[in-house]
Design a protein that fits this description.
2 domains; Alpha-Beta Plaits; binds flavin mononucleotide; single chain; 8 helices; 11 strands
Length: 271
């Protein structure tokens, strides 16, 4: 878990900004919280804070300004992001930037994309920017983080492992990766758990639609990762950023083939 960074988001309309925030938090391996949660926390220990929301009447959500109001004058880096209905960003970020500068914050970067909007004139055509932010926008958000703050990005240690074992039915491979004198225990190939980060909270096991994850000795493990449909619910719900999925396009096709005869989410009901 990256305790240097924190992302605070207020996404009230279509979850558009939330999608960007999730991609960013995943890349940084940091906590993603709402303003209400942030208001109860001590934010001084974070070196870098991301602040994002939709644009409503030409500026960020008022709650984002509320949290800035709570900021102390300690030197901190802040990056700001948004989604908006207007094709052009214009001066939408300016009020937030000014509020941050008043609090002695360094604005390190800013990011904005269009998001689905069905307000005002957009109603005439049944909504604008349909499907946005889309996969391409989310990749842009990831690249933004990688470019602007590479020092904070969460490395995927699994990619560094040289001798990977084949995935076997019902069995899990374990790997030990040494980095800067620390050994990181990784478990699983398709669904890889970083056991140094996993705190055994069990959220991943609860949300997995196929119930392939279980908790053993306070750590998450997958029972049969070949059954994983790559839905990403475990990844999205892991606050510790302890889970990564690894697959090729061929693997994704194999997933569809594997479940082609399945007729229910529950195995018992499949004939
Ligand atoms: C009440 C309201 C006011 C909005 N005002 C603006 C605006 O001034 N400029 C703009 O570009 N988009 C505006 N939008 C569109 C949103 O910024 C856009 O849909 C955004 O992606 C919503 O983000 P969210 O789903 O994270 O809340 C407005 C949307 C709502 C609901």
């Amino acid at each position: 878990m990256n305790y240097n960074c924190l992302i605070i988001v207020e996404s009230i309309y279509n979850n558009n900004t939330m999608k960007l925030a999730r991609a960013m938090a995943q890349t940084l391996g940091c906590l993603l919280i709402s303003v209400d949660q942030a208001l109860t926390m001590d934010l001084n220990s974070y070196q870098t804070i991301g602040l994002g929301s939709g644009i409503y009447f030409g500026r960020h959500h008022p709650k984002i300004f509320e949290i800035v109001e709570k900021f102390n004058f300690v030197e901190q880096n802040v990056f700001i992001f948004s989604s908006r209905g207007n094709p052009f960003l214009g001066k939408y970020h300016k009020p937030l930037k000014n509020a941050l500068l008043d609090k002695n914050k360094k604005i390190m970067a800013e990011f904005s994309v269009c998001g689905y909007d069905e307000t005002g004139p957009w109603v005439i055509i049944g909504g604008g920017h349909k499907g946005k932010p889309n996969e391409k926008d989310l990749r842009k958000a990831v690249r933004f983080i990688q470019k602007e703050m590479p020092q904070y990005c969460m490395p995927d240690y699994y990619l560094q492992i040289k001798n990977k074992q084949p995935i076997r039915e019902g069995l899990t491979n374990f790997y030990c990766y040494n980095t800067n004198g620390t050994s990181v225990l990784l478990c699983g190939d398709r669904v890889t758990f970083n056991h140094n980060n996993c705190n055994g909270c069990g959220k991943c096991a609860k949300v997995c639609p196929l119930e392939i994850i279980h908790i053993e000795k306070n750590k998450a493990l997958s029972k049969n990762e070949l059954d994983c449909t790559l839905c990403r619910l475990c990844v999205i719900n892991c606050n510790q950023r302890a889970i990564n999925l690894h697959y090729s396009w061929l693997d994704s096709i194999k997933v569809a083939k594997r479940h082609s005869k399945r007729t229910s989410l529950y195995l018992k009901q499949c004939k």
